[in-house]
């Protein structure tokens, strides 16, 4: 399976340590290769060309290089290549020139077919040539000199020499590759060699041990050699099936990126390595060692839902695949890009210097995403929000690291800054808040939530316009809690849906009780941003009205301006369904959002409520008076009803009436009351004739 995070095809920067290492190995390998070929004569080449064993070996080496045996936990970079068996057999049987030529042809063919870069192909050719040369030198120390015209077949007593040559071959090959990986991944050589040392030793022991058997079979008859392929084929098929199963369990099916499970494993490995380094540093200095930083990013695409809704999910899937490609080619070697689901990606930085360096990587990711994309004849401008959390600065383990990266990412979305580092001051998930969230979950089940009602009164004739239902929490220890103490927490979780459904049901039940007593008053309830994407809300309201025999005018939904002005919310199916059902909508907290006149005109609302922050300063601030008067005039022009919130004194009520405001709400007309008190208030008010609001 291809690893989408593999960046080994990237050409190293000229003059860098990796570039210098590659150059030295390639030059030395080329010199050894040339020296080996210099000793061959034309007669030797002709003799080998007429030997069918030579061609069989060549075919097996090429095939073995092209089709490595990849077992669970390995990739095409460290999978077992069966070419090792046959190239080592060629070394034992016909000497270094033949083995080097056959292995080089196989590496070049494999590299070209797999699209590897020339520098990588050249390094692999040099790597194998030097390893085979080292093994051949070991054989000569034992007095063994195989060659094209001096074919050698080992005896039982030659096994120590073969074992020594095999050990030298493995050590040289693994060392050359390990040094390249260490420079590429920016880790120590010891760490690079230890990553899969046990696996490599076991695999090479099996592959190299088969080489003498291949030589013996070749010497007896070329017909026996193909029989050796049968065990390889069986192992290959079983390994392929196992790898497919492992790949499906650890990777995302759409993008091929690692999934959350693999991200968890790799992050925990990085954290363990960082702690081990800190522990060793502490032991040397006999003090507390500073653990190296590990970075975890959470990246979420902005407005991706619009692509799915407009062009369909197939186009959205292709866009996600393109995003995955861009992200994997924008991170550093050794970093891991994973897809967590939907349009949410994670990036693991196993080592990172500090917060500034993490911000640089995040900025590079956003820059890669921002390049225009063309799909289906359309151009897209992608943007993403990135949240950063670092170990040990922000969290000690993976789960908390991911949670705090998520907090930072949502802050980046809300502030539209693009990149944010976790800050405890902006974390809505403090222990106290999490404790309250648990209490709130239990409060819903225990029926501790209660509705209070505050009247809305006409400023022209004193008629009652409606009652707004305001949720309160009768906390067993803290008393009655206002909404601002618990709703901001609920709005970030699934609990908001339960609270909204409870409020709607309780409000409808109270409205039905009032209508039965001839207290025909409209009850208004507040809807959150999450509610506008709850397709079940309309059905709940419709069923509640039918069950209680209430008209749609008995209930009004109040939606804050900043939520309803958001493009997805404005166009959501729920808003359209509520308007089609005939539920009156009110635009709450007007003046705190960014309404456009065009969108305001198109909104299916009957009422606009002027935010209390302007109304309370009406008598003291000329600027606020201008704002309120302009808003009242605008609302009247649009043919809607204006309602002022936060009216607490007769002077403010009088000024609003003079401006032409239709209705008002606030302590001057009545404080929020529980259901029993509100019922008594309504009865007393209905018994006396209405009068203009003072």
UniProtKB/TrEMBL annotation:
Q: Where is the GGDEF domain?
A: 292-424
SUPFAM superfamilies referenced in this protein's UniProt entry, alphabetically: EAL domain-like, Nucleotide cyclase
Under CDD domains, the record lists: EAL (cd01948), GGDEF (cd01949)
Q: Which domain of life is it from?
A: Bacteria
Q: Which residues cross the membrane?
A: 20-40, 52-70, 90-113, 125-147, 159-183, 195-215
Alphabetically sorted, this entry's keywords are: Membrane, Transmembrane, Transmembrane helix
Domain spans labelled EAL: 433-686
Task: List the Pfam families.
Answer: EAL, GGDEF
PROSITE patterns linked: EAL, GGDEF
Which InterPro entries does this one have? Biofilm_reg_signaling, EAL_dom, EAL_sf, GGDEF_dom, Nucleotide_cyclase, Rev_trsase/Diguanyl_cyclase
> PANTHER family from the entry?
BIOFILM ARCHITECTURE MAINTENANCE PROTEIN MBAA, DIGUANYLATE CYCLASE DGCP
Q: What is this protein called?
A: Cyclic Di-GMP phosphodiesterase RmdB
Origin species: Actinomadura miaoliensis
């Amino acid at each position: 399976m291809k690893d989408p995070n593999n960046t080994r095809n990237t050409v190293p920067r000229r003059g860098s340590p990796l570039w210098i290492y590659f150059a030295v190995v390639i030059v030395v390998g080329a010199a050894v290769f040339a020296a080996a070929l210099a000793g061959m004569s034309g007669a030797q080449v002709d003799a080998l060309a007429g030997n069918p064993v030579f061609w069989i070996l060549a075919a097996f080496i090429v095939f073995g290089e092209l089709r490595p045996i990849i077992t669970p936990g390995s990739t095409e970079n460290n999978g077992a290549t069966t070419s090792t068996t046959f190239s080592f057999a060629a070394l034992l049987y016909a000497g270094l020139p033949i083995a080097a030529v056959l292995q080089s042809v196989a590496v070049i063919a494999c590299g070209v077919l797999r699209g590897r870069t020339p520098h990588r192909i050249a390094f692999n050719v040099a790597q194998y040539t030097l390893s085979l040369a080292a093994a051949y030198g070991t054989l000569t120390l034992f007095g063994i000199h195989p060659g094209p015209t001096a074919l050698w077949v080992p005896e039982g007593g030659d096994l120590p020499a073969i074992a020594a040559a095999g050990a030298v071959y493995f050590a040289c090959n693994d060392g050359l590759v390990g040094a390249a990986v260490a420079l590429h991944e920016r880790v120590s050589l010891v760490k690079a060699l230890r990553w899969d040392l046990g696996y490599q030793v076991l695999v090479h022991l099996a592959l190299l041990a088969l080489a003498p058997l291949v030589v013996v079979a070749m010497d007896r008859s070329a017909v026996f050699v193909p029989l050796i392929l049968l065990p390889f084929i069986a192992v290959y098929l079983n390994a392929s099936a196992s790898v497919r199963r492992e790949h499906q369990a650890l990777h995302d099916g759409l993008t091929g990126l690692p999934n959350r499970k693999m991200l968890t494993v790799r992050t925990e490995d990085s954290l363990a390595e960082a702690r081990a380094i800190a522990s060793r540093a502490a032991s040397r200095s006999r003090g507390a060692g500073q653990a190296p930083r590990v970075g975890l990013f959470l990246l979420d695409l902005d407005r991706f839902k619009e692509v799915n809704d407009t062009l369909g999910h197939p186009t959205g899937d292709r866009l996600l695949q393109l995003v995955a490609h861009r992200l994997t080619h924008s991170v550093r070697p050794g970093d891991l890009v994973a897809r967590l689901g939907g349009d949410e990606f994670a990036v693991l930085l196993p080592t990172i210097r500090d917060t500034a360096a993490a911000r640089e990587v995040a900025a590079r990711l956003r820059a890669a995403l921002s390049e225009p994309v063309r799909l289906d004849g359309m151009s897209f401008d992608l943007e993403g929000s990135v949240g950063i959390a670092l170990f040990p600065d922000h969290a000690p383990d993976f789960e908390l690291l991911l949670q705090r990266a998520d907090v930072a990412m949502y802050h980046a979305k809300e502030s539209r800054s693009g990149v944010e580092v976790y800050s405890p001051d902006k974390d809505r998930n403090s222990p106290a808040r999490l404790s309250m969230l648990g209490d709130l979950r239990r409060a819903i089940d225990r029926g501790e939530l209660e509705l209070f009602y505050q009247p809305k009164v006409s400023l022209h004739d004193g008629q009652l316009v409606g009652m707004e239902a305001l949720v309160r929490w009768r906390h067993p220890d803290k008393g009655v809690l206002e909404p601002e103490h618990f709703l901001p927490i609920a709005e970030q979780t699934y609990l908001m849906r339960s609270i909204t459904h409870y409020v709607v049901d309780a409000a409808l039940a109270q409205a039905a009780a009032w209508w039965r007593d001839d207290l025909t008053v409209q009850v208004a309830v507040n809807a959150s941003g999450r509610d506008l994407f709850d397709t079940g809300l309309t059905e709940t309201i419709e069923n509640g009205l039918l069950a209680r025999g209430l008209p749609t005018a008995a209930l009004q939904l109040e939606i804050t301006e900043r939520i309803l002005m958001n493009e997805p919310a404005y166009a959501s199916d729920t808003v359209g369904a509520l308007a089609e059902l005939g539920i009156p909508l009110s635009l709450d907290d007007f003046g705190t959002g960014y309404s456009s006149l065009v969108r305001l005109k198109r909104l299916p609302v009957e009422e606009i409520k002027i935010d209390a922050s302007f109304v309370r300063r009406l008598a003291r601030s000329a600027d606020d008076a201008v704002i309120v008067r302009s808003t009242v005039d605008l609302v009247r022009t649009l043919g809607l009803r204006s309602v002022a919130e936060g009216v607490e004194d007769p002077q403010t009520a009088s000024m609003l009436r003079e401006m032409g405001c239709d209705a008002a709400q606030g302590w001057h007309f009545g404080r929020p009351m529980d259901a029993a008190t509100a019922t008594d208030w309504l009865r007393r008010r209905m018994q006396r004739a209405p009068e203009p609001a003072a």
